[in-house]
Amino acid sequence: MWKNIAKSLADCNPDNTLFAIETSCNLWQTLAFYLHTVMGYTVLLVSPLSTRHERPIMNLDFSRTDPKDAFLVASLARRGAFSLCEHFSPQSNALHDLSIAYDKLRKDLARNRARLRAHIERIFPEFLLVFKPGTDSALYLLKKFLFPDEFLAMDIEAETLAIQKISRRQLGVPELARVCTLAKRSIGIVKRSDERLADRLSLNAWIAQIDSLEAQIKPVHDELVRLAQQLPAFAIITSLSGAGDTLTALFLAEVRDLDRYRHFKQLEKLAGANLRLSESGRYVGSRHISHIGDKRFLWILYKMTEETSKRVPEIRCKYLTRQIHRRKHRKNVVASIPQLLQLIVALNRDKRTYQLREETVAQMKKLEQRYAVLKTQSSSHSVRRITLRKAEVPVL
Fold first, then answer.
1. For 194-237, what is each residue's pLDDT tens digit?
2. What is the CA 260 to chain-centroid distance, rounded?
3. Which 3 state secondary structure label does DSSP give 212?
4. Is-above-0.85 flag for pTM?
5. Cβ atoms 185, 60 nearer than 8 A
6. Which CATH code is given to the segment(s) 92-227?
7. Structural domain boundaries of the chain?
């Protein structure tokens, strides 16, 4: 690289040269760190999305080549379509790396739990009516029993002591007795000889992966929360009821430094939750979020908004207002994300924790009453529709 630069520039130093890098694959991170942190050059980061949309504009040609992309990256950087490469503290980098590791482990854990559930649904689906497949009690039983006939031969008294200890006395004889009752009339696929061995080996593989992932995710989670608790913004965000330590730590890991954001729309755009508008003359199209942003951050904001919309009046009022107009839970939670971000940015700007306001609480109570009436009316209408449909069904 330095030899090629020397052919065009006789004197290349941080005072007269800057680099523009397309943020694709993983090589850009190594180059950006080396050029910016080690060598001291100014590094401009150009999004691959900008390069992609710019490519057909050049000579109306959709071809993709290295010289063409290099020219487009330079052109976009010259026009200001870039973001500056920033240097973050070791603590911030550690939080960000732990957030990525936690997200990948969480997805792998959910994937293996889904595999375990699908496996049980084929062999003994009634088991899922009593135990959730990802719980410690379910995993303990599945390590010893799998097929309905194995549950029928189970010693209930001996297993009750173990289940009560694992579940902290939340489960016991009634649940085990119900499993045995369901095993007598199970609709699961009957397996014999080699099929049983294959199913047992497959199930053991999923359970072993779940145990391994749970053991790996715990130290990552604990260190993530420990580092986040050292930041001043942690106490501010956790003062919002429902935010929680885990979601707050993940939030701070993704934004890196909350003081960099002076307006909530900057965070909204970072997550890809900003609205994509479509207007022309008198025509105004429907509005949807852009989805162009940090997917991990968008998931974190959704979970935080879903929890805080149950307890924080400002967010709850926005959610209830939309629910009264149209009952769409997921869409209304996403639409309430700006209220959460407004609160966080305002609290962080003032460096204070959240406090309830009487007027907002009063407004929330009024909306709660309206929403309760609406739910009662809708449930009665649904019961009436079901009754009418039953009356229309002919008796054979």
1. 899 999 999 999 999 999 999 999 999 999 999 999 999 999 99
2. 23
3. helix
4. yes
5. no
6. 1.10.287.4070
7. 2-87, 92-227, 231-277+287-371
